[in-house]
Design brief:
This protein is α/β, with parallel strands linked by helices. It has ten helices and six strands. It has helices at 15-28, 40-50, 66-73, 91-100, 112-123, 135-144, 149-159, 164-171, 175-189, 194-203, and strands at residues 6-11, 31-37, 54-58, 81-86, 104-107, 128-129. It has a six-stranded parallel β-sheet with strand order 2-1-3-4-5-6, sandwiched between helices. 38% of the residues are buried.
């Protein structure tokens, strides 16, 4: 039995590009494009109405940008995964997208296969940044998130699965202070929870995986 298709909302103000994306995803076979929008406000309304599994949003759109759309809609749509599509791999834009709550950042220069596979990975729960973004840009994006040394200590403990009480003991802090640092990290990374925080920390280069 084949896996159910991933429902997708596409938002881009260029009709020809949007149609090309739609054709690409439908041809791939893993996706079902359930809605399209040409601006951020329309995308936000459709998101709340349809509640798709995945939303692919152009970074720059009329009326509201992709990031503004994510910030407004994500609290109401905890099960929708958000991907920013951009022409620019600027580290500041990547960091801003992570803070806004994007689960992926892909580039319009990516190959059709890379775009489709990146979207599928995001839908499966990963946090994905285009492989076309070089390591230096990712390093700069990491730096621009402004994570402090003490926040790094707390982040390392979260990765190890330590509780707030355990971290408080090992770091010589109160449990309340640890919770404050952890909440600050969630905000800085635009994460939904501790598991999502770890995923985003990996993508931003704070955690290395074997």
């Amino acid at each position: 039995m084949s896996a159910p298709r991933i429902s997708v909302l596409l938002a881009d103000d260029h009709p020809l590009f949007r149609e090309g994306l739609k054709a690409l995803l439908l041809r791939d076979g893993r996706f079902d494009v359930v809605a399209e929008a040409a601006d951020g406000v329309s995308a936000g309304a459709l998101l709340r109405e349809i509640r798709p599994g995945l939303a692919m949003l152009d970074h720059s759109m009329p009326r509201a940008s992709g990031l503004e759309t994510i910030r407004a809609a994500r609290p109401e749509l905890p099960d929708t995964r958000f991907v920013i599509l951009s022409s620019f791999g600027s580290p500041l834009l990547i960091a801003e997208a992570l803070r806004a709550g994007a689960d992926g950042y892909l580039l319009k220069e990516d190959s059709p296969r890379a775009l489709a596979d990146g979207l599928a990975r995001v839908a499966a729960g990963e946090c994905v940044i285009s492989s076309a973004v070089d390591r230096r840009a990712l390093q700069e994006a990491r730096n621009s998130l402004g994570v402090t040394g003490r926040e790094r200590d707390v982040l390392a403990g979260v990765v190890e699965g330590k509780s707030a009480a355990e971290l408080a003991t090992s770091l010589g802090l109160s449990s309340r202070t640890v919770e404050t640092y952890r909440n600050q990290l969630v905000v800085k990374f635009g994460a939904r929870n501790a598991v999502d925080l770890v995923r985003r920390a990996v993508v931003a280069g704070f955690i290395t995986t074997p």
